[in-house]
């Protein structure tokens, strides 16, 4: 037992150290730079403006306040907390996520070890480390962060059921609440709690306490997402996500079936070997006739299908939405690997790690072609005041306005030649027009050019 625990700790530390490569990179990587820039934007605004956690604020709301209805910004607030101590930097969120997500894998191991055995736990943890977790646990995004907190909460839930310690019950409440608040899809993991509630051997008093505390978790989550977020949306007119009705979502997804399937057979585990063992694991579990295990997986799967439907076309078009389901897939694959002869298990795990890492290592490095965006803030400082509103042709991606460190509008290239649109934004306070010449190569017919270089032109609008 101690040997396996020491081994998984060692492996987690090795994976942690490997993922420190490029940890100080700004959010310039191609995959989901927009989401990372948005996360940092909210954190920086806590640092420079209103630090009230109830009012997350973004920069691209034009003349409006920028207060946005989004997930509970605990992750952003941790970045803000570190910034208050050391000064703001682009990369703090990477390190925070990596630390918490590494603990998440360790508690994932502990939970499976207690529910099954150390062999399945070890195999499952290795599969998870090499999965989408490998890259996304170091992105400035709350996805693996929120799932990790929820897994830690579920571990303490198990401890409460086994030893009747109220401290463990409170720890379950604390971590599960934070996990689901940080990203609502983590709520699907809470569906696993139907298993202990249905087990006869567990004391009824414990079941009542667990149900009560679970309802408290859900109440706080519902308060944020179904009361406070709608209030922010109604009051400040800006939201991050657009949930669909179940049938509307299904209709949207029907046009993206190949993309939907790809999220399961590749995006999640990042390894065809892992996916093959996931399929084998389903067969082994069905043959085991373990009713509690089959029921738990089924309930979780149904809960996740509801989440997919509510997300609509966004799910098959974004790789990271599969993350809450990945630990279950890793467990099922680890379960199947444990059925193989012990002397071959390590070979299989080595191949899975090699495949997973090779499929993701490029995400650790920034292309030189993207580094020009780092000049935007210095250009802004040379041309306009800190409180001046700007227009920049970043499309719907907040990355460029984030690096410009200004507030205003981020628009498509077509808007740059639409004089009526530009005039409308001028009347709302836009004072400067930033043109990224890498995406827009036409000349703007005006004599108000105040700055130019090989990448950007800046025009004065007032």
Describe this structure in words.
By secondary structure, the protein is mostly helical. The protein has 20 helices and five strands. The protein has helices spanning 2-18, 33-48, 74-86, 92-115, 118-130, 133-136, 143-163, 166-182, 194-198, 204-236, 246-253, 257-267, 272-288, 291-311, 314-317, 326-337, 342-358, 376-383, 399-404, 419-427, and strands at residues 389-392, 407-410, 430-436, 449-452, 456-460. The protein is globular, with a radius of gyration of 24 Å. The N and C termini lie far apart (71 Å).
Summarize the structure.
The protein is mostly helical. The protein contains 20 helices and five strands.
Set down the secondary structure blueprint.
Layout: H1 2-18, H2 33-48, H3 74-86, H4 92-115, H5 118-130, H6 133-136, H7 143-163, H8 166-182, H9 194-198, H10 204-236, H11 246-253, H12 257-267, H13 272-288, H14 291-311, H15 314-317, H16 326-337, H17 342-358, H18 376-383, E1 389-392, H19 399-404, E2 407-410, H20 419-427, E3 430-436, E4 449-452, E5 456-460
Parallel strand pairs: 1-2, 1-3
Antiparallel strand pairs: 3-5, 4-5
Helix pairs in contact: 1-4, 1-5, 2-3, 3-4, 4-5, 4-7, 5-16, 5-17, 7-8, 8-10, 11-14, 13-16
List keywords for this structure.
single chain, 462 residues, mainly alpha, 2 domains, five-stranded mixed beta sheet, 5 strands, 60% helix, globular
